[in-house]
Amino acid sequence: MSLGIRVAALDDIPIGEGLAVDRSVTGTDDDIALLRDTDGTVWALDDTCTHETASLAEGWVEDGCVECPLHTSRFCLKDGAVQGLPATEDARPHRVEVRDGEVFLFPGEAP
Amino acid sequence: MELRRTDCELRRIVIVGGGVAGVSTAAALRSGGYDGELTLVDAGEFPYDRPPLSKDFLTGVKDLTDLALQPPDWYDAQSIRLLAKTMVAAIQPSSGTVELAGGKVLQADRVVLATGGGAARPPIPGLDDHRVHVLRTAEDAERLRSALVPGARLLVVGAGLIGAETAATAAGLGCDVVLVDPVSPPLTAAVGPLMASWLHEMHTRRGVTTVQATVEAFSAHSHGLAAQLSGEDAPRVFDAVVLGVGMTPSTGLAEAAGLECDGGIVVDAGQTTSHPAVLAVGDPTRRRVNGLLMRRAEHWEAAQYDGKRAAATLLGATVPRPAAFWFWTDRHGVHVEVVGEMAKATSAVVRGEPAEGGRFSVFGLLDGRVVAAAAVDDSAAVRAARRMIDRGVPADAGALADPATDLRALLRRRPEPTAAAVP
């Protein structure tokens, strides 16, 4: 079983913010946004908003959702489900694990 | 959403208008558990989003299908009957009928008016020339796009949101753009004088000629359309003109049905009009709160929230409280966001340096609290501010002004006990 890719230290991602991991690291079509919820947990979604070109890693993370920095579409951190217009498509989620203060990403694996 | 069944079970709801307000109403009704008949009547080919009409749709980067508010299969999946390319001729609230153009009649227990508005056309002589455009619908944008060829001389009348965005888009397409507005700088009430000046001067930096004047008359000229601007000796000649001078609310159906209208369809906090069987949402509405008539919001997000409130009213659920207005505008490659009412602020705090390629924000304060904010390329500042406004967080001017301050940390400060009594 894969151990995942070590992509960041937990402390690199402030509470309520995100960090984009380049696709050259993740091997995915899009960059992946690591998003740290207000309760401290880390989630991962495809970084590009499904509405227009905006980085969800630059969005506002709070109470289980990330809000797009351009037009405020919100996505559920756990499963990427879109919560409101203007986006209508869900964001793709990826599995994340935190071990000893290090963040490991499993690109393409469901959380 | 918690359901509280009201006196009568609603089984038939008709929404008139498929803009963001109408579509949001439909979506919120379904997500809130409404399982009766739901009909959405719209004049267009399908409901589409309007903000890109002055930007990516005007340049041709996006086509109409890219602007669809919902995917084509969404309506069937949600059991929403979409009557596209259909006009409503009249509504009869007392008998619960909606009469379509062509004579067909729909029965409705409740009607939601989401009729939007049209572009305002001021009484300027010569305005009916075919080279004078407005920008409200996809058809308007397509017609204007064909005029925006490189080198075309374009006059944009009005430097508010639509005018400024259109001027920026046209300049980007290589047009020779003159932007005229009687106010300089425009948008001061929304973003404060500093940011208003900076944004307006950006037009000049990007090759748009700004003129502080009004247009007195248009007249045909051998080489185009002549526009006489106030204070100028000779008219200027253009290939095309765009009016961006505001909207006229579509209140015709409401007025004909005898609903109270006063510069818009008057609604209560739950979006109900003066007739209990008719609700209204979005651009044409004015909310009356504690006897005071608010101005029309005319913003995208406000229309979406109206839809959620109308759905809550129809479902007998708790109606969400109106939040501070929020809007965005994109011009010359910068993303501007605004929240709240800057005109209410008695002092302003600037965070960051206004500079090309940089980011900065302005916070408007009143009685020790943030009441408004505006930001250039710093949406996080506005997102923080809107939460400070909605949660009544005390403002620390010095901390706000310091770009090194983590605004999220400021937000975590608890409101003082006396602040709990926000209306």
From TrEMBL, chain A:
<dbReference type="InterPro" id="IPR036922">
    <property type="entry name" value="Rieske_2Fe-2S_sf"/>
</dbReference>
<keyword id="KW-0408">Iron</keyword>
<dbReference type="GO" id="GO:0016705">
    <property type="term" value="F:oxidoreductase activity, acting on paired donors, with incorporation or reduction of molecular oxygen"/>
</dbReference>
<keyword id="KW-0411">Iron-sulfur</keyword>
<dbReference type="GO" id="GO:0004497">
    <property type="term" value="F:monooxygenase activity"/>
</dbReference>
<feature type="domain" description="Rieske">
    <location>
        <begin position="5"/>
        <end position="105"/>
    </location>
</feature>
<dbReference type="GO" id="GO:0046872">
    <property type="term" value="F:metal ion binding"/>
</dbReference>
<dbReference type="InterPro" id="IPR017941">
    <property type="entry name" value="Rieske_2Fe-2S"/>
</dbReference>
<protein>
    <submittedName>
        <fullName>Non-heme iron oxygenase ferredoxin subunit</fullName>
    </submittedName>
</protein>
<dbReference type="Pfam" id="PF00355">
    <property type="entry name" value="Rieske"/>
</dbReference>
<keyword id="KW-0001">2Fe-2S</keyword>
<dbReference type="GO" id="GO:0051537">
    <property type="term" value="F:2 iron, 2 sulfur cluster binding"/>
</dbReference>
<keyword id="KW-0479">Metal-binding</keyword>
TrEMBL record, chain B:
<dbReference type="Pfam" id="PF14759">
    <property type="entry name" value="Reductase_C"/>
</dbReference>
<protein>
    <submittedName>
        <fullName>Ferredoxin reductase</fullName>
    </submittedName>
</protein>
<dbReference type="Pfam" id="PF07992">
    <property type="entry name" value="Pyr_redox_2"/>
</dbReference>
<keyword id="KW-0285">Flavoprotein</keyword>
<feature type="domain" description="FAD/NAD(P)-binding">
    <location>
        <begin position="12"/>
        <end position="307"/>
    </location>
</feature>
<dbReference type="InterPro" id="IPR036188">
    <property type="entry name" value="FAD/NAD-bd_sf"/>
</dbReference>
<dbReference type="InterPro" id="IPR028202">
    <property type="entry name" value="Reductase_C"/>
</dbReference>
<dbReference type="InterPro" id="IPR016156">
    <property type="entry name" value="FAD/NAD-linked_Rdtase_dimer_sf"/>
</dbReference>
<keyword id="KW-0560">Oxidoreductase</keyword>
<feature type="domain" description="Reductase C-terminal">
    <location>
        <begin position="326"/>
        <end position="411"/>
    </location>
</feature>
<keyword id="KW-0274">FAD</keyword>
<dbReference type="GO" id="GO:0005737">
    <property type="term" value="C:cytoplasm"/>
</dbReference>
<dbReference type="GO" id="GO:0016651">
    <property type="term" value="F:oxidoreductase activity, acting on NAD(P)H"/>
</dbReference>
<dbReference type="InterPro" id="IPR023753">
    <property type="entry name" value="FAD/NAD-binding_dom"/>
</dbReference>
<dbReference type="InterPro" id="IPR050446">
    <property type="entry name" value="FAD-oxidoreductase/Apoptosis"/>
</dbReference>
